[in-house]
């Protein structure tokens, strides 16, 4: 069974889990947290060769000019017990690039000639369900580890000179989840959290580091830096990307 088939099969499972969390949230007391994050995102690098064997290696940030973009994501946490947390995340992302390349580009078996004005689109939508166990809970520290089931819905497209081609990749990715929070007193806390995993075929990291500022007992705001980095090197595709985020958001507890 291919990763695409697995991804398509798991998508309704993840959606069902997300809807279950939403329905449970209505009856929960002090167990539900909604974390909404948005801000600006920009590609640090975005290197592509499709197919991985036979395509041309080119950069959506160096050979073309990549534009910054607005992003948003939302996470719903449900505290099943004092130390067990179940969450669902939706994190869409789309970045456009444009310009001309000094070399011919073979992409998806189409040849885009040097000097041709090109437009590219990179899409990386992520949907995740996470279970995390918090080993440490005290007045100063909170730390937990868990596992994440991620559905990656990615697309790289290129068009220009009357030609157009795109590669879509939908697949399942298991990740390790972690969350560390250090109290800085009543007015702030430092938070480091994310999902990450590496394998011979590639790697994936999505990590946030920033500060959380309580506004009331139920509401807090946050600000910080997020890095989304990783990719794969296989026969079908070669793609490695780093996205930098300036992130702000709100956290509401019910």
The topology string of helices and strands comes to HEEEEEEEEEEEEEEE
Distance between the amino and carboxyl termini:
41 Å
Number of separate helices: 1
Number of strands: 15
Low-confidence stretches: none
Shape by Cα distribution: elongated
Q: How would a textbook summarize the main sheet?
A: 10 strands, antiparallel, barrel
CATH topology: Lipocalin
CA-based gyration radius: 20 Å
CATH class: Mainly Beta
The computed structural class is: mainly beta
The percent range for helix content is: under 10%
Write a concise synopsis of the structure shown.
10% of the residues lie in helices and 67% in strands. It is mostly beta strands and 254 residues long. It has a single domain, classed as Lipocalin (Beta Barrel).
Describe the structure.
This protein has a single domain (3-253), classed as Lipocalin, CATH 2.40.128. The chain has 254 residues and is mainly beta. The model has no long low-confidence stretch (mean pLDDT 91). A hairpin with a 4-residue loop joins strand 14 and strand 15 (238-253). It is built from one helix and 15 strands; from the N terminus they run H-E-E-E-E-E-E-E-E-E-E-E-E-E-E-E. The radius of gyration is 20 Å and the shape is elongated. The strands form two sheets. A ten-stranded antiparallel β-barrel has the order 1-4-5-9-10-11-12-13-14-15.
């Amino acid at each position: 069974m291919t990763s695409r088939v697995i991804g398509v099969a798991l998508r309704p499972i993840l959606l069902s889990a997300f809807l279950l969390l939403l329905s449970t949230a209505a009856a929960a007391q002090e167990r539900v947290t909604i974390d909404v994050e948005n801000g600006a995102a920009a590609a640090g690098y975005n290197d592509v060769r499709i197919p991985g064997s036979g395509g041309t290696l080119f950069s959506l940030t160096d050979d073309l000019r990549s534009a910054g973009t607005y992003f948003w994501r939302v996470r719903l946490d449900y505290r099943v017990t004092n130390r067990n947390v179940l969450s669902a995340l939706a994190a869409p992302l789309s970045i456009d690039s444009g310009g001309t390349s000094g070399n011919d580009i073979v992409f998806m078996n189409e040849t885009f000639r040097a000097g041709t004005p090109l437009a590219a689109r990179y899409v990386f939508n992520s949907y995740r369900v996470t279970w995390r166990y918090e080993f440490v809970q005290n007045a100063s520290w909170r730390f937990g580890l868990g596992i994440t089931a991620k559905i990656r819905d990615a697309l790289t497209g290129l068009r220009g000179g009357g030609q157009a081609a795109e590669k879509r990749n939908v697949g399942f990715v298991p990740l390790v989840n972690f969350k560390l929070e250090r109290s800085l007193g009543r007015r702030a806390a430092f938070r480091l959290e994310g999902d990450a995993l590496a394998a011979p075929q590639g790697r994936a990291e999505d990590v946030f580091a920033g500060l959380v500022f309580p506004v009331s007992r139920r509401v807090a705001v946050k600000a910080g830096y997020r890095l989304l980095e990783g990719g794969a090197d296989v026969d079908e595709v070669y793609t490695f990307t780093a996205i930098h985020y300036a992130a702000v958001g709100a956290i509401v507890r019910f």
